[in-house]
């Protein structure tokens, strides 16, 4: 089978990671959630806020393990659940705007995609990390639907949340991510936009699988 990379970008809670994971599993590819990496560095920053970012990224040890989904370890501690909490979510876009942080993570991400066969989701995957990805998807959905989805997520995880605060957080983060100086969130010229508002997870997944199969079978 022809090996390809798939880049999935888009704003917060558009469904990127849920669908990227399913696509990877159905196509026998590796799934990488880059947002989790920025969240893990944010957790390290919150623990040692006085450290400058260059020193921080040199000191920490990040490990990504793919085992039926992605687990992320910060200095050998499994932080996969901890990084979803509100303190991390509130600070992650600030940390992700730092040059030293982006250089470190983009380097790791490019190593992971060098051999192809990866579905990677984030904000700058199609534009910076794998600009030559065989398939690029830009996933969007209305802010209200995204906030409703995230509310359900948080309730399931036992994280305190209400709809109005989630709308605010999503709008604030999208604005920061789209207007930052380094690698802002922007749709790559050759990305295919999918508006998932009102679409089921299954329908979005099937659409991306069909696009991928066209490229793989060509
Ligand atoms: O899942 P959710 O939409 O809440 O966000 P995420 O994918 O976990 O990403 C968290 C934050 O990390 C984003 O709001 C961005 O600030 C940053 N990020 C980034 O800058 N570049 C990426 N490739 C992935 C995430
Ligand atoms: O990765 P990203 O922040 O873009 O979104 P996500 O964490 O994958 O999706 C947020 C929530 O929306 C998850 O609970 C998904 O199950 C849900 N979702 C949905 O209900 N319908 C879709 N078409 C896509 C995602």
Automatic annotation (TrEMBL):
The keyword Cytoplasm applies. Keywords: ATP-binding, Cytoplasm, Kinase, Nucleotide-binding, Transferase. ATP binds at residues 10-18. It holds the Pfam family Cytidylate_kin. It catalyses: CMP + ATP = CDP + ADP; dCMP + ATP = dCDP + ADP. Its EC number is 2.7.4.25. GO terms for molecular function: ATP binding; dCMP kinase activity. Its main location: cytoplasm. Transmembrane segments: none annotated. It is an enzyme of class 2 (transferase). GO terms for biological process: nucleobase-containing small molecule interconversion; pyrimidine nucleotide metabolic process. It is found in: Cytoplasm. GO terms for cellular component: cytosol. InterPro entries: Cytidylate_kin (IPR003136), Cytidylate_kinase_dom (IPR011994), P-loop_NTPase (IPR027417). HAMAP family: Cytidyl_kinase_type1. Belongs to the cytidylate kinase family. Type 1 subfamily. This is Cytidylate kinase.
């Amino acid at each position: 089978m022809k090996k390809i990379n798939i880049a999935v970008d888009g704003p917060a809670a558009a469904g990127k990671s849920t669908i990227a994971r399913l696509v990877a599993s159905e196509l026998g590819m590796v799934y990488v959630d880059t947002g989790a990496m920025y969240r893990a560095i944010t957790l390290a920053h919150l623990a040692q806020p006085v450290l400058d970012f260059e020193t921080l990224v040199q000191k920490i040890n990040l490990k990504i393990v793919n085992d039926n989904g992605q687990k992320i370890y910060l200095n050998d501690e499994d932080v996969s659940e901890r990084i979803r909490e509100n303190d991390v979510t509130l600070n992650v876009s600030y940390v992700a705007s730092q040059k030293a942080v982006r250089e470190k993570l983009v380097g790791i991400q490019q190593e992971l995609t060098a051999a192809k066969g990866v579905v990677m989701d984030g904000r700058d995957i199609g534009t910076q990390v794998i600009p030559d990805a065989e398939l690029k998807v830009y996933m969007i959905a209305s802010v209200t639907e995204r906030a409703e989805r995230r509310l359900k997520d948080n309730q399931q995880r036992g994280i305190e949340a209400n709809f109005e605060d989630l709308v605010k957080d999503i709008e604030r983060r999208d604005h920061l991510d789209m207007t930052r100086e380094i690698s802002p969130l922007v749709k790559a010229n050759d990305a295919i936009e999918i508006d998932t508002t009102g679409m089921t997870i299954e329908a979005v997944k099937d659409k991306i699988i069909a696009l991928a199969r066209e490229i793989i079978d060509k």
